[in-house]
Design brief:
Elements: E1 18-25, H1 29-46, E2 49-50, E3 58-67, H2 71-80, E4 86-96, E5 101-106, H3 111-126, E6 140-144, E7 153-162, E8 164-171, E9 178-186
């Protein structure tokens, strides 16, 4: 479903002036459950905290706090992105020891994903929204606060036919972030 500029702002944002936002690829329920099962296993072995199922996503662009009045611009950017899906095979486990984060990533990143990311980065820059200069490393966070981070290793692949792009709002709470989809686009 494509959400137009005329859609109303979600009720919980009516009084807010900013929203913490990011663009992400979001799996369907069956794929999400595969990541959740792996996250629980990795968290157990690394003595960390597994990601909750509704948090499973692949971030394409983290925007940080943006003005709620910018949402129509962000929706138009999503409308103009290439809406080509791809197949991602997540087959590489690893961790960032300094942050205690365990992740899974595709060992081969399809050109279609790189193209969507580059188009998004360029469109955001044209709109005056600059992204972090770090290189794009597509991954899904499996666990946080890992005491014994998982060593980098290949694993049985989780095959994800990517078919949905979302603009997500995130509210930080003591129990963890609360995500809400602000816009969604189907990918072919």
């Amino acid at each position: 479903m494509n959400i137009s500029d005329t859609q109303s702002i979600p009720a919980d944002l009516n009084t807010a002036t900013t929203v913490r936002a990011f663009y992400a690829l979001v799996p369907d329920e069956a794929i999400r459950m595969q990541f959740v099962a792996l996250a629980r296993d990795v968290a157990r072995r690394s003595r960390g905290r597994a990601m909750m199922g509704d948090h499973v996503h692949l971030t394409l662009a983290f925007l940080g706090d943006v003005a709620v009045s910018t949402l129509p611009v962000l929706r138009r950017i999503g409308d103009r992105l290439p809406h080509a899906g791809s197949i991602l095979d997540f087959d590489l486990l690893g961790a960032w020891r300094a942050s205690g984060v365990a992740w899974i990533a595709p060992s081969v990143v399809p050109q279609a994903l790189l193209d969507v990311h580059a188009s998004l980065r360029d469109a955001l820059a044209d709109a005056g929204i600059m992204l972090d200069a770090r290189p794009f490393r597509p991954h899904i966070t499996l666990a946080r606060r890992c005491v014994q981070p998982h060593p980098r290793a290949h694993c049985a692949p989780i095959r994800w036919p990517v078919n949905r792009l979302s603009l997500i709002g995130s509210e930080l709470r003591p129990e963890g972030p609360l995500y809400s989809e602000l816009a969604t686009w189907e990918l072919a």
